[in-house]
From TrEMBL:
Organism: Pseudalgibacter alginicilyticus
Molecular functions (GO terms): acid-amino acid ligase activity
Domain GH3 C-terminal: 388-494
Any one cellular-component term (Gene Ontology): cytoplasm
Protein name: GH3 auxin-responsive promoter
Residue intervals of the GH3 middle domain: 298-362
Domain of life: Bacteria
């Protein structure tokens, strides 16, 4: 009998039963009040008169009417830049303890996003909520005393005068609770290795010494790590090394495009749990097995707003037009795409995080990520979001029994005619003409706007297949291998020209 595992499982089950159900809408109203109260004496709070907003009978409406939308560039130029100059009490009391460095999917220049101690506490609280939610999943008691391998960026953060800097996964691992350290793998020494390849080699060498029950990280990098562990130890699949592996906690990007290639590394199915941890905070996690949607963390340190995702509200750079309408959690509708806005305990206000979501269950505040505001292919009216592109790629996988781990696309002009130019990461040999026709037919059926565009300005599709390693090398050269790095699904013409030159060279 697994005594420790049973004890932990029973504690989680009891905690879940004793935890009162929250009303997401009411929780959000309280979160907004708390944010405004705590920040009312900051430079930002005084400038936008938080005291007056708090006196309003409709605080949510007064809040949205008073404060403009901010993307990273706008809030950094107007407010956070003052923090970099040594000032404090700007958008949140005092000064941040950390800065999350995030190049996201836009290029080499890192964003420096404030991470306060209040945000660290908020992330820990959301993590505990996620652990408690494991009681809803049919996991064996033995799972609860196994190791948890977290593969993110290095925890060896950059030391500055009054703060530390690194990617959010490294900051989070740097702040893991003391009670968790016995379960945490690869351990502090290996986790501090900055070079991702060297870190993975160390993990591969130590793998047989660990009894891993769960792994966590971005799908593309987790796949590479598992492949290295399997290759180094000369086994057929990861369960020959970690027979008790039961859970993969995915995050950062949609898991769907990686599902087929990921499952090929396993001996048997495991539980996949989606999470939504961004540089700006812990936003959502999958709370029950009946769905792969994620529940917004509505009672933490983040207040959410939602702008309908329509072309007329989105600027070319992914920002919002100033008069775009906004909705609260009370006002959203099922299965409609929204641009997600957050206001946080790190001093982000009405901040465009860059993701689009849709609600699958409003009462539970459950969502799915549907894409990125910048990954919206609408150059010739096709109006293709990333979820539609992901669906098309999955259709190719199923139709031709192939694996497509990565892809990117751009609307490119050839002799004054527009084509959607696709690059697919395929390590199999396949005729591109077959891929072109299948892609085109699928998108015509799946998207009315694409079908109309194909009858007018969009001439057709072009497809090139390249080894998957090309995508990983592009990320390594342009940003940093591992961690929070994600591949651009949609590129503008200038970025696409760089990409094509890189592919040609490599």
């Amino acid at each position: 009998m697994n005594i420790i595992g049973n004890i932990i499982k029973n504690v989680i089950d009891i905690t879940e039963k004793l935890t009162p159900e929250t009303n997401p809408s009411e929780s959000q109203k309280e979160v907004l009040k708390t944010l405004l109260h705590k920040a009312k004496d900051t430079a930002f709070g005084k400038f936008y008169n938080f005291d007056k907003i708090l006196e309003s009978n409709t605080i949510q409406k007064s809040f949205s009417a008073t404060i403009p939308y901010f993307d990273y560039n706008k809030i950094n130029d107007e407010w956070w830049s003052q923090l970099h100059q040594g000032n404090s009490n700007i958008t949140w009391p005092s000064s941040p303890d950390y800065y999350a460095l995030s190049s996201g999917t836009t290029g080499k220049t890192s964003k420096r996003i404030p991470v306060t101690q209040d945000m660290i506490d908020s992330i820990k609280s959301a993590g505990i909520q996620q652990i408690v939610a494991l009681s809803h999943f049919n996991l064996p008691a033995s799972f609860f005393d196994k190791g948890i391998l977290m593969l993110g960026s290095s925890t060896d953060l950059i030391e500055k005068k009054d703060h530390l800097e690194g990617e959010i996964s490294g900051i989070s691992a740097h702040n893991i609770p003391s009670w968790f350290r016995g379960y945490y793998k690869p351990g502090e020494k290996i986790a501090k290795i900055d070079d991702w390849d060297q870190r993975v080699k160390k993990i591969a060498k130590k793998a047989k010494e660990w009894d891993i029950g769960a792994i966590s990280g971005i799908p593309s990098w987790i796949e590479l790590m598992l492949t290295e562990v399997i290759s180094y130890n000369k086994v057929k699949n990861i369960h020959e090394i970690w027979p008790n592996l039961e859970v993969y906690t995915s995050g950062g990007v949609a898991f769907g495009p990686y599902e087929k290639s990921f499952n090929a590394l396993l001996d048997r199915p495991i539980t996949i749990i989606d999470t939504y941890l961004a540089s700006e905070g812990f936003i959502a996690f999958q709370a029950r097995p009946e769905t792969n949607a994620m529940q917004l963390v509505t009672n933490g340190g983040i207040y959410f707003e939602f702008v309908p995702f329509k072309p007329e509200y989105i600027n070319q750079d992914g920002s919002l037009v100033s008069d775009a309408p906004v909705l609260t959690l009370d006002e959203v509708e099922l299965n409609k795409d929204y641009v997600l806005l957050i206001s946080t305990v790190s001093g982000a206000w009405r901040y465009i995080i860059g993701d689009t979501i849709k609600f699958t269950d409003i009462e539970r505040a459950e969502i799915k990520i549907t894409g990125r505001t910048k990954f919206f292919l609408n150059t010739v009216g096709s109006q293709l979001s990333v979820n539609k592109l992901d669906d098309a790629v999955k259709h190719l996988e199923n139709n031709f029994n192939i694996k497509i781990k990565e892809y990117t696309i751009s609307a490119k002009r050839y002799d004054d005619e527009f084509y959607h130019s696709w690059y697919l990461g395929i390590d199999d040999i396949i005729e591109t003409d077959l891929l072109v026709k299948t892609l085109d037919d699928f998108l015509k059926k799946a998207n009315k706007n694409y079908r109309i565009a194909r009858s007018k300005a969009l001439k057709g599709i072009k497809v090139k297949t390249v080894p998957t390693s090309i995508f990983y090398n592009w990320n390594a050269v342009n940003k940093k291998k591992g961690g929070q790095v994600k591949m651009e699904r949609v590129m503008n013409e200038n970025k696409f020209a760089e990409w094509e030159a890189f592919v040609e060279k490599n």
